[in-house]
């Protein structure tokens, strides 16, 4: 887990894991027969130590804008605290097939959170897709990282997404064809 965070999943080898653990490579293979098993164990352990925000924390908030602010604030604090692992994971995901499953699961979790948050806005059908797209983009780590790189505090990020969401509610963009 620490190697994934320090050098990234792509550069973490079984030899490096064995060396860090003070064991032989065969010992690592006895516990983890392949790279997928290593990633499953690493992901499970890391998520136990760093659980993502729980939607129950903002579920009782009636005002959709306040609910969105609470959710984004929780995710942005989470990303601030776990930035190093998310940075290396996003950088390496395309090149590490064993990482793609856990990353897809987290993406699915974010999609369900975003859908629930967008649904709370009760936007008219012609703008609902804009609200949902805005919120989905605001929830993902790469958006947080881009805003972080621009020097915004988490509070400023949340405020900016509020502006985006209000704009989406009144937007006039046509829905792209699928």
UniProtKB/TrEMBL annotation:
<feature type="DNA-binding region" description="H-T-H motif">
    <location>
        <begin position="13"/>
        <end position="32"/>
    </location>
</feature>
<protein>
    <submittedName>
        <fullName>TetR/AcrR family transcriptional regulator helix-turn-helix transcriptional regulator</fullName>
    </submittedName>
</protein>
<dbReference type="Pfam" id="PF00440">
    <property type="entry name" value="TetR_N"/>
</dbReference>
<dbReference type="InterPro" id="IPR001647">
    <property type="entry name" value="HTH_TetR"/>
</dbReference>
<keyword id="KW-0238">DNA-binding</keyword>
<feature type="domain" description="HTH tetR-type">
    <location>
        <begin position="1"/>
        <end position="50"/>
    </location>
</feature>
<dbReference type="InterPro" id="IPR009057">
    <property type="entry name" value="Homeodomain-like_sf"/>
</dbReference>
């Amino acid at each position: 887990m620490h190697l994934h965070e320090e050098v990234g999943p792509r550069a973490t080898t079984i030899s490096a894991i064995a060396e860090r653990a003070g064991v032989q490579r065969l010992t690592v293979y006895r516990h983890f027969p392949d790279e997928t098993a290593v990633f499953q164990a690493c992901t499970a352990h890391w998520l136990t130590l760093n659980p993502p925000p729980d939607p129950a924390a903002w579920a009782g908030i009636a005002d959709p804008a306040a609910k969105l602010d609470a959710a984004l604030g929780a995710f942005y604090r989470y990303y601030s605290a776990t930035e190093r692992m998310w940075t290396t994971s996003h950088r390496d995901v395309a090149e590490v097939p064993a990482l793609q499953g856990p990353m897809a699961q987290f993406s699915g979790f974010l999609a369900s959170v975003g859908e629930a948050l967008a649904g709370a806005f009760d936007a008219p059908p012609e703008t609902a897709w804009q609200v949902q797209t805005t919120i989905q983009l605001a929830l993902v780590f790469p958006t947080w990282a881009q805003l972080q790189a621009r020097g915004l505090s988490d509070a400023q990020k949340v405020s900016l997404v509020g502006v985006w969401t209000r704009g989406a509610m009144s937007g006039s963009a046509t829905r792209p064809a699928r």
